[in-house]
Amino acid sequence: MLDPLLLVASAADSVSPLAQMALGDDPAGLLPARQQMALSLGWHIILACFGVAFPAMIFVMHLIGIRRNDPDALLLARKWAKVSAVLFAIGAVSGTVLSFEMGLLWPGLMGTYGDVLGLPFAFEGLAFFVEAIFLGIYLYGWDRMPPRKHLLMVLPMAVTGVVGTFCVIAVNAWMNAPVGFDLVDGEVTNVDPWAVLLNPDAFWQFLHMWVAAYMVAGFTIASVYAVGLLRGRRDRAHRLGFTLAFGFASVSAVLQPLIGHLLGSRLAETQPAKLAAFELAMETESPSPLRLGGLLIDGEVRWSIDIPYLGSLIARNSFTKPVEGLSSFPVQDRPPVNITHLAFQSMVGIGTLLMVAAVVFWVARWRRHDLLEHRWFLRFAAGSGVLAVVAMEAGWIATEVGRQPWIVYGFMRTPEAAGENSGLWWLLGTTAVVYTLMTAGAVVVLRSMARRWRSGEIDLPSPYGPEAQRPHGTGAPEPEEVQR
Amino acid sequence: MTLAEVVAAALFVGVLTYALFGGADFGSGFYDLTAGGTKRGAELRALVDHSIGPVWEANHVWLIYILVTWWTAFPETFAAAMSTLILPMLLALLGIVLRGASFAFRKYAATLGQARLFGAIFAISSVITPFFLGAVAGGIASGRVPATGRGDLWTSWLNSTSVFGGIIAVGTCAFLAGTFLCADARRSGKHRLAEQLRWRTLAVGAATGIFVFAALIPIQRDAPTLASGLENQAAPLVVTSALAGIATLVLVAVRRFAAARLTALVAVAAVVTGWGVGQYPWLLVDQVTITDAAGARATLEALLVAVGLAGVIVLPALGYLYRLTQSESWSRPI
């Protein structure tokens, strides 16, 4: 979606005979439902990252402010809280869109498996509840609560970020590797919702996404301060804001490749076709090469750089075990190859780059070189937020497209989950317009907040409030009325 | 009571709480919209910001609770209702998205022009969103959502029960918000503003009360099952709502705003519960009962664990938030 490479890949996929076969008698609601889900989930997931990771960063910044009596840190925490108010509001409403869409777009999935996959969502709802409550308390508690107690109000939000992520990811992991029910004569029986909540794939997939959230939020916030530093705003607050956010992002970026590797090494067992698509493996080769880049065109792999042994080593932890090739799966069970492969490799490539950048920065700092003095590093850091977002989106594209043609792997194909509503194209068009406007609104508001902060304002009073509306010169509040 | 009915009751508690507290947040949009020009409405708009700012997201989560409990416990009816009532659902969703986003944007808008644009979107979407949710309730209560497959896309929500349901939803939201805002204005020492709100709350309350009881007439013909429930098992609730509604009007008239808030909550709760009790034991009226619509037993039991945890974790936290927002130090300007 965000990655030009993926456009090429999807073009290549759409002319492949595979895709043409799939177009046969799909329900009218399938294609718009897919696009709608990609748009609304792809948009929401960025804000969800902030919902998960931002509270912990605000907590640390606020803690530094209180512990060291540091006015810069306190002011930054106050500003970050205001930014989070805007981001969480649009995150909450775009998350609600997804709740509706579960039923609107995928009636077949929800009607059949609603009671199997629902429990984790119920717990996610609990987590979201607690997050929304403490968000309200924290945002409005500034100057109204004792400072230490006020600070503690952030902690529940950081904890619910963990719980909420786990629960949502548990459902996705269940779609990848379904458990907790039996299918007897086409009827779903023996439902065990706890097995779904605690399914074996949930943990590693959760860890992967949770750490990704910290990368997205951390690098994005760091890139905002990198832009400020590039423009010559080299005050302590900019350095502090950058360092704390980049610190969170760095720890995550270093851990992420390891977590991703451990998650990926389960694929040979659980979703071999997805692994084959990731690795662009058409035939089963022993040992399998690592195939960098490349596209599958007319059944042939072209333009790829093959590194022998490395595919087996990375995917199977072995010098000889092969990656099972796509040719061993029936054509109707294969995912779109090119888009999955390129999305996967974009994620891995960008993730590796970000990890290297994090290591270089901290090693240099340890050797007493401050890379914040170098414009080349600041330029890279300014782009790191976008890179982290692209990597995460690419990861979601890889895992979701790679699961196709299944919505519940091995049990329900995506066309069976969709409805017959061709009117969903209208929904997609409307959503595209509304989300574009909402993005524009958020950008305008956040930029104006930054501008006013730079000019020395702190509280950002609303321009329509009584204070702003009172004529100049009669500043004193009227006797009965109290000014806000 | 069967296990399914216990879960349905827990689901309905969510519907009720959302109608009361989420409803009051939506209703404040009515006063924001009718506050007058920028200068005249400044104080009222600041009050709306201050009143719903800390709580609207938490109140909004009741909607998520409703959706999740519904699809987990009664999956086929969820799919059926979403397919049939897709249009009012999407319009309500659009309103929810626009309301939440523009409320946050307005608060931090830099210029008056931007604030007016976001404010208009916030206020208009706040006022009309409850209409579509009320229309959804009307579609279900009048037996227009089939248990499987898809009912009529238009008549399922453009019928007299739905239209009255929608108008009642808009009215009750504004009525609740009025009593809440009167009390908030009084508490923060804005007596002239409280007076201004008092008259409008009285007007909205009287109009809504008339609509609630006028609706009983078309419902007889359009939704006979619901009507018979309202005349029988739900009759005490109908009476309660009338008495509490009148009491609220009197209390608002004599400026006992804090007490009026409680009677207003009782009046609206009685209307909403009247609908729920009136259509019992149907989940989708005339189509499928609560017991028949239920999903797997193990899931229902697990859901009750989640509901119990919500009672232990969420309710105290929510109570703490409400208590803070009503406290003296939070009402004071900073």
Helix content of chain A: 55-70%
**Overall 3D form of chain B:** globular
* Main beta sheet of chain B: 2 strands, antiparallel
Cα distance, first to last residue of chain A? 45 Å
> In what order do the strands lie side by side in the largest sheet of chain A?
1-2
- In terms of per-residue confidence, which ranges of chain A show pLDDT below 50 for 5 or more consecutive residues? 14-23, 473-484
Structural class of chain B: mainly alpha
**How many individual helices of chain A?**
18
Query: What is the count of structural domains of chain A?
Result: 1
Q: Give the strand tally of chain A.
A: 6
Strand arrangement within the widest β-sheet of chain B reads 1-2
Figure out the total of helices of chain B. Answer: 14
Briefly summarize what is shown:
Helix content of chain A is 69%, strand content 6%.
Description:
The complex is a heterodimer of chains A (about 475) and B (about 325). With about 475 residues, chain A is mainly alpha-helical. Chain A has one domain (about 5-15, about 30-285, about 325-455). Chain A has helices at about 5-15, 15-20, 30-65, 70-105, 105-140, 145-150, 155-175, 195, 200-230, 235-265, 265-270, 270-280, 310-315, 335-365, 375-405, 415, 425-455, 465-470; strands at about 180-185, 185-190, 290-295, 300-305, 405-410, 410-415. In chain A, the strands form three sheets. A two-stranded antiparallel ribbon of chain A has the order 1-2. A two-stranded antiparallel ribbon of chain A has the order 3-4. Chain A has a two-stranded antiparallel sheet with strand order 5-6. Chain A starts with a helix and ends in a 15-residue tail after the last helix. In chain B, helix 1 packs across helix 7 (about 160-185) and helix 7 (about 160-185) runs antiparallel to helix 11 (about 255-280). Chain B has one domain (about 5-330). Helix content of chain B is about 80%, strand content about 0%. In chain B, strand 1 and strand 2 form a beta hairpin. Chain B is an all-alpha fold. Chains A and B meet through helix 4, helix 5, helix 17 and helix 18 of A and helix 2, helix 3, helix 4, helix 5 and helix 6 of B.
